[in-house]
Design a protein that fits this description.
PH-domain like; 8 strands; 140 residues; alpha+beta; single chain; 30% strand
């Protein structure tokens, strides 16, 4: 069993810090203490999700976990394609440096493993039929 932590994107973190700082500043100016408490709790929750998002390859199963909110399993034998992407849709990924994993049933998941190429290699070992589409030439 191999565990891969989610990559935490600096740009994404800086954007969120900027938004939370400006929002918190406005709430302090307006003396909206309940709003400030809500903002701080939201920031703590997001930080928790960032640090508790990881992917596990266990035998022929890929497990995707993000805090207590998401815990899905995918059979590696059903993976048809892995593509690099940076689409900013909501996903169990703490970075915009992402992988889109498509399955043969039309489902998929977007993730952001820190050790992206090692992660891809591990999946390919278990399912050599997976088609890989990388945006950049081999960075390995």
């Amino acid at each position: 069993m191999k565990v891969y932590k989610s990559k935490i994107g600096v740009g994404l973190v800086l954007f969120m810090v900027f938004v939370f700082t400006i929002s918190s500043y406005i709430l302090v100016i307006e003396k909206s203490w309940s709003g400030l408490v809500f903002m701080v709790l939201t920031a703590v929750f997001i930080a928790y999700l960032f640090h508790q998002t990881f992917y596990t390859i266990d035998g022929n199963v890929l497990k995707v976990k993000s805090g207590f909110l998401l815990n899905h399993s995918y059979e590696i034998s059903r993976i048809t394609e892995i593509r690099e992407t940076n689409i900013p849709i909501s996903a169990p990924a703490a970075s915009l440096d992402r992988l889109e994993i498509n399955l043969n049933n039309g489902q998929g998941v977007i993730i952001s493993p820190k050790q992206k190429y090692e992660f891809i290699d591990e999946l390919k070992k278990r399912n050599p039929k997976i088609k890989i589409e990388l945006r950049t030439k081999n960075k390995r």
